[in-house]
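Students often ask why inverse folding is considered easier than folding. One informal answer: many sequences map to the same fold, so there is more than one right answer. In these notes we will look at a single instance of the problem. The structure comes first.
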């Protein structure tokens, strides 16, 4: 641990501070300045040469993505012994494939490839939408997909819900929901969802297993919340008595939080992977810090 140096891009500093506390090491804040022409200045406050550099950085925006690339290559330029990257939220992660003849750019792949080509030694991702991005390199980077199952299960148990059933908003996520249900010892089912535009879906129906029970709708991320709210409505139509939501990545774009506040959904449970998310009457936010700290410890034990 004495050889460890923990930094982050600006957006993920609150989470990085919690990880540093969990590891009982100091957090190293980057020196940043903005020039009159908008160019960004970065400097390490101490020499990372010969040290194991750990960089925490969500890539939810172009600026955060670029800053992460700068930190990785800065570590390489300064001769860090190893450069280890933890990405709590990967931007563009739903764009890992393209429709035939669409001429789309699969930014989930191309942007992750940029991260790999910056030459980190190790990159860990949290609850990826698709594992396809793990293979967007030529084999020279060690990767890890971190699942939040244990944190999610602990959060549901701490919520003191009774007689609940887990519901996936579509069949694509049903395997993950089944895994959570097996850990919780509860029933699970999936809704029938169809996507007809970039941010538009139709949720058809939900099994009657939800009748008279509390529902926890589980997903990897909440972007606009449209399909989640539709799933909640179908659950109530099928006889559910109460509905809660759990998702790892609380993007909540385009007024999503207001829509949730106006919906019959009781609470939204999620992590602090997406920068700026804090708990309130609607949101129950848990931290990824224990999970990220453990992967750092595990990485060091292997060296």
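Output (designed amino acids):
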């Amino acid at each position: 641990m004495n050889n460890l140096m923990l930094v982050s891009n600006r957006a993920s500093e609150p989470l990085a501070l919690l990880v540093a506390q969990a590891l009982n090491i100091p957090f190293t804040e980057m020196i940043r300045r903005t020039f009159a022409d908008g160019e960004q200045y970065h400097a390490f406050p101490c020499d990372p040469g010969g040290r194991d550099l750990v960089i925490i950085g969500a890539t939810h925006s172009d600026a955060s993505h670029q800053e992460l690339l700068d930190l990785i290559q800065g570590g390489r330029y300064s001769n860090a012994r190893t450069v280890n990257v933890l990405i709590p939220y990967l931007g563009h992660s739903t764009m890992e494939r393209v429709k035939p003849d669409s001429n789309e750019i699969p930014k989930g792949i191309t942007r992750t490839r940029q991260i790999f080509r910056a030459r980190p030694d190790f990159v860990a991702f949290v609850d990826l939408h698709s594992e396809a991005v793990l293979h967007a390199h030529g084999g020279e980077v060690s990767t890890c997909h971190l699942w939040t199952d244990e944190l999610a299960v602990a959060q549901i148990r701490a919520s003191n819900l009774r007689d609940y059933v887990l519901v996936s908003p579509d069949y694509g996520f049903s395997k993950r929901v089944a895994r959570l249900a097996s850990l919780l010892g509860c029933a699970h089912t999936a809704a029938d969802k169809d996507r007809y535009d970039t941010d538009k879906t139709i949720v058809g129906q939900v099994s009657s297993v939800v009748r008279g029970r509390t529902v926890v709708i589980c997903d990897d991320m909440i972007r606009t919340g449209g399909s989640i709210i539709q799933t909640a409505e179908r659950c109530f139509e099928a006889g559910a008595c109460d509905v809660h939501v759990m998702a790892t990545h609380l993007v909540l774009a385009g007024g999503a939080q207001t829509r949730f506040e106006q919906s019959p959904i009781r609470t939204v449970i999620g992590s602090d992977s997406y920068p700026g998310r804090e708990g309130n009457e609607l949101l129950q936010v848990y931290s990824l810090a224990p999970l990220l700290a453990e992967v750092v410890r595990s990485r060091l034990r292997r060296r």
